[in-house]
Amino acid sequence: MTAGFEMWDYVVFIAYAILILGVGLWVSRDKEGHQKNAEDYFLASKSLPWWAIGTSLIAANISAEQFIGMSGSGFALGIAIASYEWMAALTLIIVGKYFLPIFIEKGLYTIPEFVEKRFSTNLKTILAVFWLGLYIFVNLASVLYLGGLAIETIMGFDMIYAIIGLALFAAAYSLYGGLSAVAWTDVIQVVFLVLGGLVTTYLALNTVSGGEGVLVGFSKVWEAAPDKFHMILEESNDNYINLPGIWVLVGGLWVANLYYWGFNQYIIQRTLAAKSLKESQKGILLAAFLKLIIPLIVVIPGIAAYVMVNDPSIMANLGEVGMLNMPSAEQADKAYPWLLQFLPTGLKGVAFAALAAAVVSSLASMLNSTSTIFTMDIYKQYFNKNADDKTTVNVGRISAAVALIIAVIVAPLLGGIDQAFQFIQEYTGIVSPGILAVFILGLFWKKTTNNAAIWGAVLSIPIALALKFIPIPAFEPWMHQMGIAAVLTMVIIVIMSNIQNKGAEDPKAIVISKDLFKTSPLFNIGSMVVCILLAVLYALFW
């Protein structure tokens, strides 16, 4: 057993890298006589089938913050962190039934574009700037940092070189090919992601069982750490501040999930690129089913690592390698990279390829969406309204490159954060309540006015910051802060809209009919199955 890579690990990883780059560049090529236009670059020519949409949604979502950050949270607080994944499955169904039909009917490129059609250019610009800042300084930077941390831990490379390497890898095909390259390579990335994740889970549980298999290992993990298998944490639990009991199910986590899956450009963009609404909804359903199994490959390894670290007999069998980069309560995010050290030659390369796939696919998705928002909502609005297709695509590539350079500079500054998954959720939660309030009321309340939405979006930030930094014990869990900020923002928008319009409907209100939300029998049956499975999971781990 060795901590480093051996020849076959390098062979597997290099083969993976060549495959991804090859496929990315192949699907990016221009057809003879055809100049890549904005729809080709930003929406993959609106040609994605359901299975590409579903897998691409998961590849864009599952990144280093899940593999490393969520495993770290599994090590620190247990299965409760899986609420993010399992509730996301239900959220996806809501998005597919109630949000997507409106977005696709409007023929959107970007989520800020919807804001312009429903409200105004001014509000679109405000939210576009919000998103650009969030994607570059929180999402891109944190994914690069966590990916760099993994490479440094597993392979011993200096973090800054690891960050630059990941950035160049993602840029190599995504900057040239756009969403088409991102989505089609994501199909392959998900295969590596799931296979590598299952390999690591198998290794961890088999090690705990002393070679007696996965089921025995899971049973021993459950016996050794029963407190790690509660979805709903008691108020006395040290981690209640991050996952506040029943409020996870009925409170602020809905703000995070509805914002992320419904109004987040780098997620929703691939659903806008579908061949049709029904195709997009089938893709959403596939992603919902995949979400149910994600905790198996990102949370269970973290809990198993906790049991291993606290069992002297297991640690004795691991030898000196077990002492390298060992996770602890203060450095929980080392759990997943630590486990990868124990994989046999060859499989270590597969698991590392899975981690790289998670990082690179998310980077590529974020870069494409960052460039889409900048190009379509900032550049074409304020700098060159009549830009031709060649100029538009080139600006998209340049803006993505600039965003990546900034993120590479910021990423090392995130060193020292623990449970990075929680860090990302917490700081995204300052922006998401206001955006969610604007969109929910804009979509479904016809009296919402532009001025009220602008004031709501702008005031939501100081409201969220005040709730975060004013020491009120009842508001201490940041999920409570997120939920309260969303409700207060909605109240502001409702009051101002009623004052301005005196109860009348806004001229730009969306006309909604029952027929708009009709879904196929397949979608309805699949949705019921997801809900039943969720009920069973929560009953088992309550």
From TrEMBL:
Residues in the signal sequence: none
Cellular localisation: Membrane
The entry's keywords: Membrane, Transmembrane, Transmembrane helix
Transmembrane segments: 7-27, 48-69, 75-100, 126-147, 159-176, 183-205, 245-263, 284-309, 350-374, 395-415, 427-445, 452-472, 478-499, 520-541
Domain of life (superkingdom): Bacteria
One Pfam family in the UniProt entry: SSF
NCBIfam families on file: sss
Name this protein carries in UniProt: Sodium/sugar symporter
Gene3D superfamilies: Sodium/glucose cotransporter
PROSITE patterns linked to this entry: NA_SOLUT_SYMP_3
Species annotation: Algibacter agarivorans
InterPro entries tied to this protein: Na/Glc_symporter_sf, Na/solute_symporter
Membrane topology of the entry: Multi-pass membrane protein
